[in-house]
Amino acid sequence: LSVDMLKKQQTELSNDDARRAVNREARMLVEEDFLSKAPDASVVLETLRDHHLLLEHTGADPSFRFQHQLISEWYASDEVRQVALKALTDEDARRRLDRTIIDRPEWTEPILLSVERSYQEAHSIEAVSYMILRAIGINPGFAADLIAVAPSKVWREIEPTVHAFVDAWRPVAK
Q1: CB 118 within 8 A of CB 132
Q2: Which one of 64, 93, 96, 147 has the largest count of C-beta atoms within 10 Å of its C-beta?
């Protein structure tokens, strides 16, 4: 739901779009053998609503949104982490990371949250390092923001590359 909201640059999804998102994810969970049968989208949405993760707007055009935008961004940060991990070995994931995530302003907070969450996940350090180095060529200022919230282990890993980038960029910027 959160990724669809970001892609549409909206803070809520229509009832139909929310159901499509739930059904798509449920199919993926069945394909990956996490579920034996896809749950009904209505039940999933009602459960999320009943547990105060989603707010349902009823009326002529029913829709769903997260209780707070930060909740949506938190969930979207998991998508960032997954794509960054795949980008380490997959060219399609690299293109997606560059073109539809790092280079899109609506993904700023989920990216920052993903980098901050890497403190909790040792295997994410390499992915975060890679993502920051990709961001440097797209938006150096944003890359600096990412470095500021990244674990110090990330900085130790990317420091020589960042310094080389800055040294090469400095004469151009003058």
Answers
A1: no
A2: 64
